[in-house]
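Chain A, query sequence.
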Amino acid sequence: MARILLTEDDDSVRTFVRRALELDGHAVIEAGDGADAFDALQHMDLKFDLLVSDIVMPEMDGIALAHAARALSIDLPIVLMTGYADQREQAEDLAAIVHEVISKPFSLDDIRRAVGRALDHAAGIAA
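Chain A, predicted structure.
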């Protein structure tokens, strides 16, 4: 299965999403904010198949994290999560790498499906 970098500043949401993704057999590496996630992305020994990130976070938000990942030339599909409808528009310039923006609150099945679609799409492009 996939190796996923999960970035979420809310501990309960991060735990919920991690458990949901682990149900599908994914290996999940957690980061509490965008700056920690960016550090993980810069480590050459860590290879991720997908970034799942909240948009609104301290230090570095999900949009800035997506731009930073792109600047590193990391070919990494991204699923963004947000509880704010107006935040969705901020991701429009990242359409090439942001596969989906999922609105909070979401169910276990919602996040699992969004991740599955992003991974399937990335696999289709790589094939």
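The first helix runs from residue 11 to 23. The mean pLDDT is 89.
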